[in-house]
Design brief:
With 163 residues, the chain is mainly α. It has helices spanning 2-27, 38-44, 52-63, 67-82, 85-94, 101-121, 129-147, 149-157, and strands spanning 46-47, 127-128. It is built from 8 helices and 2 strands, in the order ααβααααβαα. α6 packs antiparallel against α7 (129-147). The radius of gyration is 18 Å and the shape is elongated.
Amino acid sequence: MREKTGRIILYVAAVCYAALMLYFLFLQRRPMKVHESYWMNVKENINLQVFDTVKLLVRLLRNSNSEYLIRFAFLNMTGNLLLFVPMGVLLPCIWPCQRKFIVIFATSFLIILCIETFQVLTLLGIGDIDDMILNLLGTMVGYGMWHIGPVNRMLQRLGFISA
């Protein structure tokens, strides 16, 4: 009985997490204005330079006198990381096949790639390789937390996963 209740709570948590992700990644944003052709805007909203954005944000954190820019840089980096930590815990709890590192890594990569692609195509955000790296790192932190013995045993005792 406890395992069934735990599974229900787990699914409710996953639905709530998905709803929050949907809100933060898509619904709270307004589409960018199209100044030229749609495809030109799409092209301008893709960053494939690894660590280009991270270097810019670190520079802002170190050198900016603007409280707004410092807050923006901090929230951008930590948000991209922390927003995906729950995915690294929920995926292996819900689907046992996600308990293998390579499987959860590949699944997370594909989910994040779809999110970034959707943001670019809908003009709701920028497709940024650094965002993908931070998102994937956040998921792997969550997976690492799930994999730690005491956390895993606690999830088993609560009925969220079976032994």
